[in-house]
Design a protein that fits this description.
It is a single chain. With 1008 residues, this protein is an alpha+beta fold. Helices cover 19% and strands 37% of the residues. Strand 55 (631-632) and strand 56 form a beta hairpin. The protein is elongated. Residues 1-47 have low confidence and may be disordered.
Amino acid sequence: MSTSLFFARFLSLLIHADRQQNQLVRSLPCRLAALALLVFCWQAEASVPSDLLSGYTTQQWQSSDGLPEQTVQAFAQNADGYLWIGTSGGLLRFDGAHFTEYSRENTPAFLENSVFCLTAGKDSALWIGTEGGGLIRFSDGVFRLYSTTDGLSDGFVRSVMEDRSGAIWIGTDNGLFQLANSRANRVTRIDGTKDLPSMAVHALLQDRSGRIWVGGSRLISLDLKPGAGPREYKLPGHYSENRVKSILQATDGTVWVGTVSGLQQLRPGSPAFANLPGIHGTVRVLRQTLDGTLWIGTIGQGAFTYRSGVLTRVAPYQPLPSSTVLSVLEDTTKNVWLGTEAGMVRLSRTPVSLIPLPNASDFETISADSDGSLWVASTKLFHLVHGVTRPFTFPQLRGARVRNVFRDRNGSLWIGTDGSGLFHLNGDATEQYTTANGLTNNFVRAITQARNGDIWIATDEGCNRLSHGTLRNFRVSDGLSYFSVRTIVEGIDGDMWIGTDRGLSHLHQDAFQHDTATEALRKEKVWSIHVSRDGDVWFGTRNNGLYRFAKGKMYHFTQDEGLAANSIYSILEDSHRRLWIGSPDGVSLLDRSEFDDDRDYAKQHLSQRFYNRSDAGDIAPLYGGTQPAAAMTENGDVWFPTNNGPIRIVDTGRSAPSPTRLVIDQVVVDGRKLLPQSQLHLPSANTNLEISYAPILLSSQADLRFMYKLEGFDRDWLYASSRRVAYYTNLPAGTYAFHVRALSPSNPAVISEAILAVVKQPFFYRTPWFFGLCLLASALAVWGAHLARVRRMHTAFRAVLEERARLAREMHDTLIQGCASVSVLLEACSSGETSDKTEQHELIDYARTQLAASIDEARQAVWNLRAERSDDLGTEIRKLADRISRESNVAITCHIEGTTFPLRASALHELLMISREALYNAALHATPTELSLKVIYSPREIVLEVHDNGCGFDQNQVNGGHYGLVGIEERVRQLGGTLQVRSMVSKGTDICVVIPKSATDVHEMATL
């Protein structure tokens, strides 16, 4: 128990006893005892010095800054650079600016939100110990819970450690457990044996010798060598005071053990633990930083540091938000993180320190004296000697407010005031210069001494030179560019350079010169001037950056060339030829070699170290406009004025920062969040794309700059907004590469870059395959049109040929056959074989009738007409056979078999023409004595058979002159039938025609 806590309890006992009228306690001896106890406690507390952590700058995060709950219980950092934070309200991932929360509300593996301990494994796995929810492993984006089903009998995990063999040790409120390796699925209990009894485990450590230290209800060390057993250590004090909460082995081999009552140490070679005086509360956490400092976090007493045998208390509330410190971590950038009950604190080492001034405001100037001290002019004058600041008053000034202090080469002081002119303090003598004795104005802005000893004074209304007690004024009427003078400096050639609120003046031998420098700065507010040893003159402007005048040429530098700011209040140069430039938001350190005359600043910006507000905590902006606005001491420290007091920058000579890791952490596509991958595929209908990026930098990110470019869409690099999100709307289809870069003014040459490939799918009607299909379809359409045209031409030509063939058949079967019949009749009439006149007249009349019928049939055939006839094939064939029999004088027999059915007119016509041609051929060419015609109706076809007993013919010698058979064959083919002709010389001829019923039947065609 701490002395302060003990005293508080004792005091409450006194108050309670007093209310109960306890005379014993109210007696004077008891009151004196209480007073003595108070003094003892105060002395005990005062024996440990407090420290405000000089050399560190602090930043706090609480619930209002993004923590789900303010109790921060654990820290861990794994290989990817993120800081993992265990709070009572869940697990957080922190990149230095933004939190990502994991809890049971969004992560099923979390049965409880309170995270008590965190350990980063060697394989980048994160081990998460919860209060009641078991152990969780996070690896490759997957959370894996170990609970009672996996062998863990207690869900309150207080400590997790990975040993050198890769085994995971787990300490709980009820037992010690182990996983054989980080990928094992089963937990094994270690304690609860004869050699190692059951215990609560709150701390685990593997020391350099390989032993495992287990602390909790006991303190035991386990030697992992075969045959070795556990060893228990007895700590001083009662059992209730010795419960172990933390264990650490320091670099010197000392084992430190934090208990509920203080801190114990076991030095190498020592037989027992010894108490470290000064800490009387629960030591919750122990960490040693790389510089050897031991950080001690306690419950109720804040944090302590122990180094070189000195215990120092970090005063609570300055800078800690709570006196209970639950976790400590040093990250890879050497920041120290403290987790408390009221948020977390980052302690960052800084070469910048702020010297606060009591009751100071409207800061003016800071001047270096020849003895190494500093004069700080604000609402009051302060003298800073060896780091100690005290108010200072010059009685000779009679209460005048000091603006600036200057010590000349003779050792006398010149003091410029705010409205009271200039004072010269030379020993006991004091001189005052005002408008009454020749000064242009009583408000002094700058004082300097030329090499010839003259004193130059810049005021609100003109410039003055004091030489051997005589004042000479320089006003606008004398050639001064503007009346409001801000600074005045002597060049190496003895010329005076005068900066005003509207331009630059160059004074050479008491005459104002117009040159390249004055022309370039004629409209600028020139607030600072510096002359280098090589003669270069540097001009700092209020709004337009830095100018350099060298060898008659002017060079201009702004933020476009890499400057941190375009407003410049002061310019200093150290012994290493480096420029220290003060601006409203910080100080830039630049190397003179960076200002090369031939440098291409568009490709390579100025590199610099930039000290901003975060380097010295929450400081006010720097001050400028009155000189000197900066000072440099002999040891190289630089000082700048701010509204809260001067800041000192100690040049540590540290190297340029390493590249910051930059990641693309989120992509939002039309309101839908996606995890970033190496390539992002966007649907064709996408309209809005948001790409979020972030640096993983646990130090201050205040001076980081970002720029991005979507290659294939953006022409130039775009500077990013503070939201660190790139927006794209209605992105055309295509393949892109999103580049984002992070750079720091401290070293612009070092750039971190992240790249995301983006592929947006086109609409289907804009894809190459669609265009190809369209071209192919167009080609096919053209080809199809061509084929259709050719087909139509072929059809037309075929129709012509068919029509010609039809006409040839019809003429052959009608006109020619009729003419042949008429010819036979006429031959019979004229042959003289018939002497009977009556018979001759009958033959002539019959020939005349036959000729008229042939002409009519020919006409109908030409016009494709059909004579009016019966649809009964048998009737029509009998008529045809009877007529041909009379004409040829050959007997023709007809037979009809089967069940008849009605025929189409065209089919009937074709069958009659086939029959007619077959009968005429036989009658005219075969000289038969008998002709037979048979028609057979069957369910599927019609068979037409013609037989004669004529002379026959040799089928192998049939030539094209027998057009009748060709015509018959064409008609049969049109009806879809078959034709068979069998003939032998002197044996007769058989013709068989088979026509499908479907090609002739009216009903069949209707069905089709």
